[in-house]
Amino acid sequence: MRPFDYTRAHAPADAVGAEARIIAGGTNLLDLMKLQVETPDRLIDINHVGLDRVERDGDGLRIGALVRNSDLAADPAVREGWPLLSKAILAGASAQIRNRATTGGNLMQRTRCYYFYDIDAPCNKREPGSGCGAIGGNNRQHAILGASDHCIATYPGDMAVAMSALDAVIEVEGPAGKREIRAADFHRLPGDTPQRDNELQSGEMILSVRLPAPLGGRQIYRKVRDRRSYAFALVSVAAVVVMEAGRMATARLAFGGVAHKPWRVPAAESLLTGQPPSPELFDRAADAVLAGARGQGHNDFKIPLLRRTLGAVLAEATQESK
Amino acid sequence: MDVTLTVNGAQHDLRLDDPRVSLLDALRQHLDLNGTKKGCDHGQCGACTVIVNGRRINSCLSLAVMHDGDEITTIEGIGTPDDLAPMQRAFIRHDGFQCGYCTPGQIVSATAMLEELRQGWPSQLSDDLKNPELTDEEIRERMSGNICRCSCYPNIVDAIRETAEGAA
Ligand SMILES: Cc1cc2nc3c(=O)[nH]c(=O)nc-3n(C[C@H](O)[C@H](O)[C@H](O)COP(=O)(O)OP(=O)(O)OC[C@H]3O[C@@H](n4cnc5c(N)ncnc54)[C@H](O)[C@@H]3O)c2cc1C
Ligand code: SF4
Ligand code: FES
Ligand code: FES
Q1: Which of A76, A184, A221, A293 to pair with A19, CA 20 to 30 A apart?
Q2: pLDDT tens-digit profile of A71-82?
Q3: In angstroms, rounded to a whole number, what is the distance separating the alpha carbons of residues A264 and A269?
Q4: Which residue, by CA, sits nearest to atom 4 of ligand 4?
Q5: How many domains, in total, are found in chain A?
Q6: Judgement on whether residues B18 and B67 belong to the same structural domain of the protein
């Protein structure tokens, strides 16, 4: 690990616009600093700025950036009204990590691409212009949607996939003031600037995440991975389906493990909305989700895997009450 | 940088000349509490699990300077050779280890896990997110952050279940 200066923020204002890297739980940043993938000169510790509560916000909720993943997943209001979010968080990492990981840090976690982690390998995300080791290399974990010739990495997190499906809004503050970013728009596609994971600008800090009113219905987070627990998603599907008189009155879908951001396809959702469920329809929805999908070799399996996982999730979400 | 840690009930004032010291290295190298183990140093194995302010965390992925004023319990605070905690006795009775390297982390983690369960925290197996029960599957899921290279998992599960039932 490279040397750095350490300071402690006592209020969000100390960290907003600070010329220092924010550290929250530290579970991603310190991992990367030990490998010298991240080499900040200064750290500012935001663990004592408050922002650690889940509060009512009209019919919705406001989640502070420092709320720990385990507290958020266990929060009674979240379990009751937004079970998708609890399920997605509980599908991620381990109990020890969730006890430390924060809402803001989880959104900001970086890719798990092996070449990104290996400072001797080429990687445009870590070192712009150095090339991409994963294209033509080991790319079993990598993106099948929205990738570019510069980077095919995936956003690895689970929580943000649920937030995207739930139409959450991320509240951030920078030197120029506060602004809001839809969770579905927060992460970006790699394009020719893969070094930028998301829309947060330098000097900005995540303050909170707002959830709109509960959607009800069946809420499912299905995560497919190499082992049952404590592994990143190969493909994950977040779904909220509200049935009315045998038809899908609401259908929300978001996908993890397949792109540089949680993947949402409004066309697939409108295809389902107002229709009675059927395997054929689920297949057409999968076609819409997979429009433009392309494998890189080792990850070709993700294309049929996404189709089948979506089919299984929709079948479960629409079956007559158990 | 001055940091005060309360470890197993005793207060320690540490002077760290470098903020890079992890909580794990502070415990092992500055306080000579070698029970807590370093396996991967990257949050992947759980050997370094300690309880901070009532919560189990990986001490390798935390800086000591971030824990000023915190209360920490390590395996040395769970029980001693002359006065073993029920969880430690159960690990011995059920042969819940082979090389023993992961064991302090397993025992600290399991101790905190039972407290999480008492508070009704769900896991990804708790379908309705309510009223979790301590089935063997739940024990495995909730302990998935502790890897055992010797693969003593069946006996670890037995030890934890017995301790939980004894305490119920
Ligand atoms: C072994 C292992 C397995 C894991 N498995 C999973 C998994 O299956 N699914 C999953 O989703 N995640 C997984 N994770 C990742 C884990 O969820 C993240 O490490 C964690 O959520 C990061 O949160 P943190 O608070 O510790 O962030 P930190 O490490 O403190 O920070 C991460 C980044 O966020 C920035 N940041 C933090 N807070 C803010 C803020 N408020 N505003 C602006 N920037 C901020 C920091 O500057 C840093 O760049 C795993 C991690 C490990 C080590
Ligand atoms: S996929 Fe992206 S993160 Fe991975 S090596 Fe290529 S540029 Fe780097
Ligand atoms: S040493 Fe901390 S998790 Fe492995
Ligand atoms: S007993 Fe050897 S690693 Fe668990």
Answers
A1: A184
A2: 999 999 999 999
A3: 9
A4: B148
A5: 2
A6: yes
